[in-house]
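Preliminary data (for renewal application), manganese (II) ion complex.
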Amino acid sequence: VPAPTIQSHPVWRACAPDPDHVRRIAHDLDMAPLLAAILAQRGATDGPSAEAFLTPSLEGLLDPFGLTDLERAAERVTKALLDKETILIYGDADVDGLSATALLCQFLSTVGAMPKVYVPNRAFDGYSINDAGIAAIEAAGATLVITVDNGTSAIEPVATLQSRGIDVIITDHHLPGEQLPPAFAVVNPCREDCTYGFQPLAGVGVAFKLACGVAAKLRDLGRNGERMAKVLGEVMAWVSMGTVSDIMPLWGENRILVSRGLRALPRTTSPGLRALCAVSRIGPGADCRAEDIAFRLAPRLNAASRMGRSDLSVSLVTGTDENICNKLAGELDDLNKQRQGAERDLLLKVDEVLAGHDFNEAIVISGEDWNSGLLGLVAGRLSRRYGVPAVLASWGNGDPGKGSCRSVAGFDVHGALAAGQEHLAQFGGHAMAAGFSVSRASFADFAEGFRRRWRDHVATGTPRAPLEFEGELPLIAINLALVKQIDRLEPFGEANRRPVFATPRVQLGEVRRMGGDGTHVAMQVFQGPTTMRVVAFSRGDLADALVPGQTLDLMHRPKINNFRGISRVELELVDLRLSAASAVQGEAS
Ligand SMILES: [Mn+2]
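Predicted structure:
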């Protein structure tokens, strides 16, 4: 029986930063050209700019009052604090929204307020301000509502609240439509008239800026500035959570906030965050990385809303009782395990549907009982793995069903949905990620149109988004010293990914499945005298497709694995392919 074929991305390409910049950085900082190239790739042009990237400083933070309406908002909040008004924080159930909610809660509590919190449960109430939310605001007796990570498009609901004498301050980072809501203040760096120096703040970043503004106002009134500065330093932990989870670019102000926040995170005094760290096995005082947020903390918080229980995550992040928080964190951990199991099941079902699929085509598939909370996660895995847009739809919750798309660079899925909207009940989102609802009867027509649009896109010569690597390295050059140098670029995330390298022509040794049910694969590779362990997450398919003795080109991220006190370098697989007869070139397809 022939082995199944290896699925590889068709285009590998080396990044090509400006050689002058690389030379200048390498010279100014007396640095290896490979590292200088990685810094140049991230926007550094010379020694000082590379140095600023390597050592982010709080002095680089911008004046919060540079945000349009922030002055007005900070004054209104300050007045509410002095007059002991009831303030309600109107949040959102994703990690950014939860973090922003927790941040304002923690900050306002330390300056003497007892804010109320409302977060709509997406499974029942949808998103942003709605009728249930308005009822909750009135029942709470709030005279001031502060939205976080939402509200920019809530024109009608905000008008209703304002007309009933309830002031609304919007803090948000979603793109505004033609009209802003008639709120008391709208703080959003994406406002057209906002000239703030850094646009891509997360929702929690905007909430943080409001807290900074309020702290400044209170200081002017003679309040203890030191105590507030301490709290602001502490709540940066929440900024790092939301910014990393919302996949905001980690340069500029975000890089400063996230690197500071990661230091504050394992030392947090928030009982909820401490409990979440504990179940995620991040000890007090541990070194916390952006990857710990992305792969440990955020999935547990997100599991709640994916499984319809966002009430649990809201109680956790705003909790003040240690015992209750520990119990809630345990429940989230259980929900996350359920989510993982459900995601694995879904991936297996999807792999079955995709057997024999031509991966030049867009992936547009549907199932009867797929968990609609997981469609986006799995679509994202598929689009990254195959380099084509992936659309998954399910009728698990009835007809019309829900769908989710994830794209590849250069192809606007939101535009593709808009072009096929005659077949859809609803749709919304961005170029890279979008959602929709569709009736069973229309799905085939929608799918055909979507695939055709992708084919047209490819046919017009728009190149397939390549899989990029920062440089080529032989196995023998990959050692602890190199990885320690690379780690100076942390925190890694969007727009600053952990560097990826290509290593052509390694010999494959043993391959075995790992993880409880063999979802992942570990293998040994050899090159001359060097042996290295490679781990491939969610690539169980490789266990059947690979044959020891094969010559492979690897694309990977070198990492340090600490196991039983011993630090070793291992490679996290990004992609692999059978080596061609000649050595790998910069680009091959
Ligand atoms: Mn957000």
